[in-house]
Every structure is written in C-alpha cells, then in structure tokens.
C-alpha cells in the first residue's frame, strides 16, 4: 500500500510537519523553561539578599534569635518558597516552615556547606517523595570577612512545571491538529496528482492489450493534462500506424497467396519463415516437417554461401534453373536478399518462376517453323526438279511432258492445301474466324460429306455404315466448317483403313449434346503416339502419311473447330484393330425431328 505515490506523498508531508512541529516545540519549551527558571532564581536571590542584609546585624548578636524569628516570619516571601536562616554552623535558627522539629537541626546539604565557606551556592533537585523539582539557594550572610549565617531558600518549581506541562499539552494538541490537517491535505493533493496518473495507467494497460480506442478526458492544462494529451495523441498515432501495418500486411499476404510465382523467405539463419501456396505447389510440399528440410536443402543447393556473397556484396542478380522431374516442371529460381532500414541483412528470398510453359511454347514454335519449312520445301524441290527436267528436253516428249506437268500440278495443290490449312489454323488461333452458324440437319450434312468421299471409298473397297437415330435435333453450327471436320475424320479413316475395311458413322443424343462417332477397322495408332495425334504436323508414320498427301494438320484443325463450337473431341485406338474418333456438338432445342439410318457399301 505504501508503495503507491499517494501514500508516499502523505507520509512525506506528515513527517515533514511532524519534524518541524517537534523541533519548534522542543526549542520553544526550552526557551520558556529557561526564562521561568531564570526569573525564579532572580526572585529567590534578590529576596534572599534582602533578607540577608536585614539579618546581618542580628546574626552577629547571638542574643537576637527572637528578632530573627520575627523578621523571617514577617518577611513577605514568594508562595511555595521556604526560607531558613542558619547560623554559622549550619543549624536552623529560624524557618518559615511550621515544622517545630526543624529548628536547631543542622543542614548539611552541599550548597549550605559551600555557603558557609562564603560562596553563594545553589542546586536543583527532585524530591523523591513528591517527585517535584525544587530549587535550593544558600546565600552566605557576611559580617566583614566572616560568615555569620546562611539564608537558605528552598523553592518548589511546581507552578513552573505545571505551566510548562500546560504549554506542552497545548503544543501537542496543536501538533496533532496540524498533523491531521496536513495528512488530509496531503491525501487530497496526492489524489489530484495520482488520480489522472492512475487513469492513464489503466488506459495504457487496455491500450497494451490491443484496444486503441482509449482516450483520456483532459480537465486541466497542467503537466498532468499535457501528459493526458500526449497519451491521446500516442493512442491515435498507434492506432493509425497499426491500421496501416495491418492493411499493408494483408495486402502483402494476398499478393503472396494469389501470385503465381512461388515465394520462399528465409531468415538470417537459413530457416524458412514464409512459403506461399504457389511455392508449395511447385515443390510438391504438403507437410510442415518436409517443408522445413526440403526448403533448407533447396537454398543450400541452389545458392551456396559463396554465391550469396556475390549478391550481398556486389549486388549481382542471381538466378538458377532447375527441373522437377516428378512434375516435369522447369523452374527458374531468383535469389533476393531483404535488409533492414540501416542496410543490414535480415533474410533472403527465393522467387520461383515456372518456365515450363515458356519452354514448351518456344519448343513448339521452333518445331512448327521447322515443319512448315519442311512441308513447303518438299513440294518445291519436286516442282523445281520436274520443271528443270522439262526445260532440259522432257517437254519435247508429249507424254512425259503431260506426266511431269501433272506432278507439278499435284505438288502445287498440295502446297495450296497446306497453306489453306495453315491459314485456317492461324484464324482459329487468333479467333478471326467468322462463324456462320445455322440450323443444320445432321442427316443431310453426313450425306453431303459421303457424296464427296464416295469415289474414294469405292476405290478402296471400303464398307460404310451410317447410324443416325430418328428424331435427332438439328445442329446449330457453321455448316462448312463442321463439314470439314467430318471430311477430315472420314478421310483419315479412309486413308488408314486397308482395302475391304469398314467405316461406321454413328450419332446419338446425350444430355442435350449430339455425340458423333467415326469408327474404322484400319491400322490403328500405337498407344505412345495416341496422345500426340492432335499436335500440329504430328504423323505416326510420316512416309505413309505423306504418300496420301497428309501434312498432319487434319485432326488438329478438326478438334479446334469442334472446340470453337463448345464441343470436345476424343480418340481411342487399338493398333491393328482400328480407330474410334468421337466428338460432341451442342444440340438445338425445339427442333424438327429428322433422321434415319443409311447403309452403304462396295458397289
Ligand atoms: N483413323 C486413323 N487410323 C490410323 N491412324 C490415324 C487415323 N487418323 C489419324 N491417324 C494418325 O494420326 C496422324 C495425324 O492425323 P491428321 O489427320 O492430323 O494428319 P494426316 O492425316 O497425316 O494429314 P492431313 O490430315 O493434314 O492431310 C496421321 O498421320 C496418322 O498417323
Ligand atoms: Mg488427316
């Protein structure tokens, strides 16, 4: 309790007043006592001397005892004072006391003995019976050089002591009163100082627990008021700064969480302090322990200490590429240090960038350019060699000339087809195709396509079958483009199916979608090639495909057209048994029901 400032102030105040009152009281009492005692002594002395001067002549005369007695009795002395006249032997001749036994008694007190030798002597003693201070004064009565007697006075200091006691009581009461008033005033004063301090302390505690809305009511403009004002300002500033920090933190967290690049942050000791979801995904990390171990190893392997110094001291950029075989991912790791305001190193960051896509794309682009150049060069070389042969004389032979010109025409057609295909692909890529959508009856469309390839089918002695159930809804598609899809798929089926093979075209309605299946009994596609047949220029058997004039773009164009219509295309195949290509197209509601089944075959 006495630790509190309030009590300390009260205690200091009280002690201060107590000491002052005590000091003042003691000093005052001493002075008063001294004054009274001096006054009393002076009175005794002058009274004694007066009596001695009267007695002198009688004491010389030994017969004058009666006179002495009368003189002593009649001497107006101070109240409470006893006067004794002693002869030159110290015996009591006369006394103001009523005690008859006193007369003739010899007084042997030291002051009397000394007075008998001619020296005035006095003493202050406490009478044990009454416990009262008493003043003793012995004055020698001299006749010439001889001491003829002694006036011995015994004066009680009772009245002086009583007076002093009264003063003491008054002083004590006053001191007590002053002390209580001081304690009360001290308490009140301490309250006015400590109350606002206590309030500030209380609010500071709430502030420390995170509630920054605390404000202090300012009543005075004094130092405490200033402190309160500063507190309010501090709370406001803190709140403001913390809000800013929170906003900044959540912004940074959102950026880190939603960015596609991986971020790993390490402290100075190389311990992982932050990892964002993208980094976890790229590194395939899912539990905390492996995260710690793995990321530490990653830092040590990618950026050994000597490399780090290059970055820290020479401020060089560090970036390294590494592959994650499990995920077939190529990652580029950038190393960046982060520092305090003063420039000392706090930790390091690794930024992971997935460059797999970029690499694949650039690889595809290179492959594409190489393929296009190759596909164009081959017919051009053929044309050039045939034209040269014609110039060199072959044109004079009509039969050879026509044959050679046919080859040139074929190769030109092939080039034109290739350029057209490339054009379609680039239009599809850049979404520049103008889709001329209309309601198309599937049966009619299929019939038209089959008419186009009929000669081919007949030449190859291929059996064919169309299974389209009745009541199929019409398609809402770009007729020419979808026709091209059918043509590309059917010509593939025709090309890769040997003589006597079979092609079946089936259609079915599935969840408001039209699913079309084109199945053949051809050579099929090996499983390792199957995932790549939709790639541009990909052909399983290049020489064989080229014989048919294929460039490897047919499937890729067909799938892109289907996808542009909101459908999807799949391919299944078993080598030696056949291939099945299926694709979906969105159906059209409220349509006219048309359909049927047609069968065809070798004619
Ligand atoms: N029905 C099928 N049976 C067997 N192999 C097929 C079949 N359809 C496609 N393929 C294989 O897939 C490859 C790619 O087919 P795609 O139609 O894209 O090219 P292409 O037929 O070679 O040339 P293009 O169609 O451009 O004239 C073909 O080269 C062939 O090897
Ligand atoms: Mg094809």
Description:
With 603 residues, this protein is an alpha+beta fold. It folds into 4 domains: 5-164, 2-Layer Sandwich (Beta-Lactamase), CATH 3.30.450; 259-354, PAS domain (Beta-Lactamase, 2-Layer Sandwich), CATH 3.30.450.20; 359-428, Orthogonal Bundle (Helix Hairpins); 434-600, Histidine kinase-like ATPase, C-terminal domain (Heat Shock Protein 90), CATH 3.30.565.10. The chain is built from 14 helices and 18 strands. The strands form 4 sheets. The chain has a 6-stranded mixed β-sheet with strand order 16-17-15-14-12-18. It has a 5-stranded antiparallel β-sheet with strand order 2-1-5-4-3, sandwiched between helices. Helix 4 (158-208) packs parallel to helix 5 (223-258) and helix 9 runs antiparallel to helix 10. Adenosine-5'-triphosphate is lined by residues 488, 492-493, 496, 520, 522-525, 533, 538-541, 545, 550-556, 579.
List keywords for this structure.
603 residues; alpha+beta; Beta-Lactamase; Helix Hairpins; 4 domains; five-stranded antiparallel beta sheet; 18 strands; rod-shaped; binds adenosine-5'-triphosphate; binds magnesium ion
Rg over CA atoms:
66 Å
Average pLDDT metric: 87
Through-space gap between termini: 119 Å
For this structure, the CATH topology of the largest domain is Heat Shock Protein 90
Q: What portion of residues is helical?
A: 40-55%
Q: Main sheet, how many strands, which sense, barrel?
A: 6 strands, mixed
Number of strands: 18
Bound molecules: adenosine-5'-triphosphate, magnesium ion
State the strand order across the main sheet.
Answer: 16-17-15-14-12-18
CATH class of the largest domain: Alpha Beta
Report the β-strand fraction as a percent range.
Answer: 15-25%
Name the poorly predicted regions: 591-603
Molecular shape: rod-shaped
CATH superfamily of the largest domain: Histidine kinase-like ATPase, C-terminal domain
Q: What CATH architecture label of the largest domain applies? A: 2-Layer Sandwich
Query: SS-based structural class?
Result: alpha+beta
